[in-house]
Amino acid sequence: MAIPRLLVVDDDREVREMMVQFLQQHGFIALPCDSEAAIREHLAAGRVDLILLDVMLGDENGVEICSHLRSEQDVPIIFVSALSADHQRMAGYEVGADDYIAKPFNLDLLLARVRAVLHRARRSSSLVYRRSVSTYRFDGWTYDAKRDDLASPKGFQVALSRKETALLKVFLANPRIPLTREEIAAALDVTGGGQTDEGSGRAIDVLVGRLRGKIENNPKSPDLLKTERGVGYVLACDVALDEAG
Q: How far, in Å, CA of 225 to CA of 223, rounded?
């Protein structure tokens, strides 16, 4: 289960940091941007699931940026702008925006709209996702998602618990991306209802330790599930995907 990766594009540093922090607290990977160049760097570097885009970006125009992006890809885009007149909203929708939120806004409303757009994007692509990934291959290991089987580089079957399997899927969906304990806990829904508690971080540490014990040659000096100091954990290898037939 991939943790949604969001770009927060705003030239106001305080607003940008506030939105990033809020979204991270609710289980998203939120990355700050302040220009079209920064957006394109993130898009080139890896998966982006949604872009929150301000209309006024200093010398740049968010509507023009949206138009450029729409000519190349279908990543969902939500405008977040102080320009809220009807004709300004229509300009945003005409270039392909999925939603338009006027500043100032309620953070809970922002969260609801983000989740709604992500849900619509997943539903519209459901047929693609349903037949997308059958097998993950990483550092000689093979995980068959259809059969729920994990095979070692030597071909031995390794049994995983339900929670260990769910954790492995989180890492396989986010290779080489450092994940905080809070992000992992939110993806696993450790405490139910999408919320984490003070004990969930320790629960993640224990669960990572158990998974390391099954896939690492030396769990005390891991090569795959590495500790990212000051952040959390990272799957430190590439993941190849085989499409289902």
A: 6
Q: What does the pLDDT read at residue 82?
A: 86
Higher pLDDT, 132 or 185: 185
Amino acid identity at 91: A
Mark whether 85 and 167 lie in a shared domain.
no
N-term to C-term CA, the chain: 20
Give the distance between the most distant pair of CA atoms in the chain.
63
SS3 12: coil
> Could you report the per-residue pLDDT of 177-211, keeping only the tens digit for each?
888 888 788 777 543 334 444 457 788 999 999 99
Number of structural domains the chain divides into = 2
Q: Are 52 and 92 in contact (CB under 8 A)?
A: no
| pLDDT for residue 123 | 55
- d(CA 34, CA 32) in angstroms, rounded, equals 7
Examine residue 104 and say whether the peptide bond preceding it is cis (omega within 30 degrees of 0): yes
pLDDT band at 132 (very low <50, low <70, confident <90, very high): very low
Rounded Cα–Cα distance for residues 79 and 66 (Å): 9
pLDDT score at 236: 94
Same domain membership, residue 138 and residue 116: no
Question: In the prediction, which pLDDT does 102 show?
Answer: 87
The alpha-helical segments, DSSP class H, found in the chain are 13-25, 36-45, 62-70, 86-94, 107-124, 126-130, 162-173, 181-188, 200-215
- Domain range for 141 is 133-243
Contact residues for 121 (Cβ-Cβ < 8 A; gap 6+): 49, 50, 76, 98
